[in-house]
Amino acid sequence: MQSERTLREIKRFIFSYHFSTGLRMTIGVVLPSVVFYYLGYLSIGIGLSTGALCTGISDVPGTALHRRNGLLISTTLNGLIALGTGLVIPYFSLSIPWILLVCFFCGMLLVYGNRGGNIGIGGLLVMVMVIGEPTVNVADGLLFASLILGGCLWYDFLALLLWQIRPYLSVQQALGSALVETAYYLELRSNFYQPGVNVTENYNAVLAQQIKVNEQTESVRELLLKRRADQQGTTSINKSLVMIFLEAVDLQEQVMTSHINYEELQKIFPDDSVLGPFRHLVYLFSEELKNIGIAVSAGLRSRPHYNLPYEIEKVKKLLADFRNTRTSLQERTDLVALNNILQTLQEMAVRYHYLHRLSRLDAEQQTPIDPNLELSRFVTRQRYDVEVFTSNLTFRSNNFRHAIRLSLATIAGFLLGEFIGLHRVYWILLTIVVILKPGFSLTKTKSTQRLWGTVIGALFALGLLHFVHVPAVIFVAMLLCILGAYSFTTFNYTVSVFFTTPYVIFLLHFLHPEDIENVLQRVLDTFIGGTISFLASHLLWPSWEYKYLPAYMSHMLRSNQSYFDQSMKLYTKAPFNITEFKLARKDTHVSTANLMAAFQRMLSEPKSRHKNGSQVYHFVVLNHSLSSHIATLANMGMQHPMQFYRPEYNVIQAYLSAFMQHIEDRMNAIAATENDQKAPPVADFEISNHAFDPLDQHLNHLLQLRQQEIDNKAPHSQVRSELLEVKNMHDQLHLIHSLLKDILKTIQEREL
């Protein structure tokens, strides 16, 4: 079993975006050097490889138009920076203002999102590489700049050629990864059925995994739906991928509906005789979804590995036998939650079967996508106009402060290297531009990862050079290190740095054998660059996460309120729009992940900046539970349309929605106060159970009728059907009310 899981993880990585990107980057970077080495012009090959590397960084997934424009902009910018740096670097007095200008401009490109930020990093690397290349005069600098431009153009050609060959590769990989991350989320949820499990610790893991699920889902949404909105995805393959994505998002909602009071569940079923089979069943569902995700990533048709309907029937029979040993209505009522989970798993099994069919990518040519679903509204459009740049030229902008911080840190590293007489100061600058991020927590994490990766990688490289003296073996090791460095860049930064360090050392071994004695200097340079970055992020207009948490919390509340209102339309006879519902659901998932990610970043900051940490964590957990119960309401209404309409639902919906609005208003007041703004007035709100009284009375009446039927051994009747529907709604609405009261208490503690 363990060997199968290990093999599957290897397959997952090989078919992932990380490995394909690493392979593409390796080909683009290594091929020019190898070709020109055999032609006797290695220095030309190194220049071309440098340009390919710096442009390759900007090659992030996207539509054909965005990828092409991004590569062309990166190539133009890299060429200009290489030219300018080559002209001024021989003159120390001109170098300082030039470095400041380049760092500020490239740092500000973060205002254009991930693609703009990567283009900026590529430009910074060009500047650093030109500084690191020993030049005697301007002519040498211009020659190296022209080689970098040639390398950029070479990578543009390679990337666009590979895209033409496999245009859907990045979409399939992102979609498969989203399914696998959802499977791991489901596997973590199965741990709640483990006797004696630490519910709090498992919640932490579940919330952290939800961030990964959301990141992958948003990545697919941008890739797939934007392509379709731009009329680039009208083929049957694209249509099948869109349908897989829509099924995956609905599946995520079904996974969230399995939320119940796990601590209470452990008390009701203390042994493993009932919960054990449930845990195993949920685990099988997670394993099956992993297999589907890997197949989608590889472009292969997935086939069932487990007979899930049979496994469900086994657990259903076990639960029926257990219920027959319980005679009272209360004891049978305790099983309702498990029955609901079984029902959800049955619906998920049907969805799994459909995903297996869709993985053929050509089987659903005649199946229409819901025409009422406006897919273009789910795409976030990134503005690329000049106004976005100029509007951020203020200290209120986090990106502006980061650009200033980056400029000052880089020039400090440059001057320090010149002052202490380093032969090549570029290693310090390289460390600074790579690890200095807008937030303190990210900079701290990158600094630690880079230092550890550099030290361990240097020890590995020196050990290999000490025991191996065959150039061919060292060259093969260097190629493997290049592949590992680029493959793990976005997957595991420490491992990426571990491979990068031997790659550089092996390269120095071939180019400048005498520089091997300075390997320890490279480690010291990394430490210096990391220290400068750490101090800059801590002292120069630092960006602390606690300042932004109230805004994230307010958005989380607003998203849940909209999600709740849209879901309740399924029960109140209000007009229901599928697009508005799914937009509200999307916003809830995004805001939950954003809040949790911000909270985790705060925890990595100095303890003096951990303001209201316990209250924020409690707020996150409560809102995650709230989202899960709303998802349960939505899933019940979508999968099982209401049969017994009750007017009480309208009253309860209005009351709970007003309660959520009151909590959001109080959170907005806190956010305004912490940002030194005038807090808006908050209206009073009366918390009571009066809105629930009519529904409670009706449920008690149904319980009495059903108990009489049980006593008389009557068969299943309409009373039982109505009781199940009303009780499910009653329990979910009461749980939502209880959660809102707990959330309000958490906010009141923060107000004190």
Structure, explained:
Belongs to the YccS/YhfK family. The chain crosses the membrane at residues 12-31, 37-58, 70-89, 95-112, 119-136, 142-163, 455-485. Keywords: Cell membrane, Membrane, Transmembrane, Transmembrane helix. This protein is mainly α and 752 residues long. Helices cover 76% and strands 0% of the residues. It has four domains: 1-165, no CATH class; 168-378, Methane Monooxygenase Hydroxylase, Chain G, domain 1 (Up-down Bundle); 406-543, no CATH class; 547-751, Methane Monooxygenase Hydroxylase, Chain G, domain 1 (Up-down Bundle), CATH 1.20.58. It has 28 helices and no strands. It is elongated. Helix 6 (113-132) runs antiparallel to helix 18.
The percent range for helix content is over 70%
Report the structural category: mainly alpha
Q: What is the end-to-end distance?
A: 53 Å
* Largest sheet, strands/sense/barrel: none
Shape: elongated
Uncertain regions spanning at least 5 consecutive residues: 229-233
Number of domains: 4
What is the CATH topology of the largest domain?
A: Methane Monooxygenase Hydroxylase, Chain G, domain 1
Percent of residues in β-strands: under 5%
* CATH domain class name of the largest domain: Mainly Alpha
Task: Summarize the helix and strand pattern as letters.
Answer: HHHHHHHHHHHHHHHHHHHHHHHHHHHH
Subcellular location: Cell membrane
GO cellular component, one term: plasma membrane
Domain Integral membrane bound transporter: 414-535
Transmembrane segments: 12-31, 37-58, 70-89, 95-112, 119-136, 142-163, 455-485
